[in-house]
Amino acid sequence: MTEPAGGEGREGLFSALKNIVATLIATGKARAELFVTELEEEKIRFVALCSKAIGAAFLLAIGAILAVCCLALVFWEQRIIVFGVFALLFIGTGLFLVSSIRQQTSQRGRMFRASLSEFEEDLAQLRRYRDRAE
Description:
Blueprint: H1 5-74, H2 79-106, H3 113-133
Helix pairs in contact: 1-2, 1-3
């Protein structure tokens, strides 16, 4: 025997709903993978940047101390002036860097911009689809 025509419509509707759910899950999975990839890239970049910054700061500090000691030896009679001038220079530069760090941390980062733009595009497509369906 054959099923009534209403049953076929229900099966078609259920199949379409399953396809929509599967598409949404696949899209969400792709977006989550993109998000995780961006997070891993940012983590690697941050660790590399921090290690380079620490190494550079250490080497520059050692170099600055050795330069001040050499100048103090060259100008032994004025060593107090040499140490005082360089102390002011180091303190001034340190304060400048602290203010630069404060300014940089107050600015909003652009992390995950690709993931966010993809999510916004997905939402726009879903809204267009919904508007066409209505």
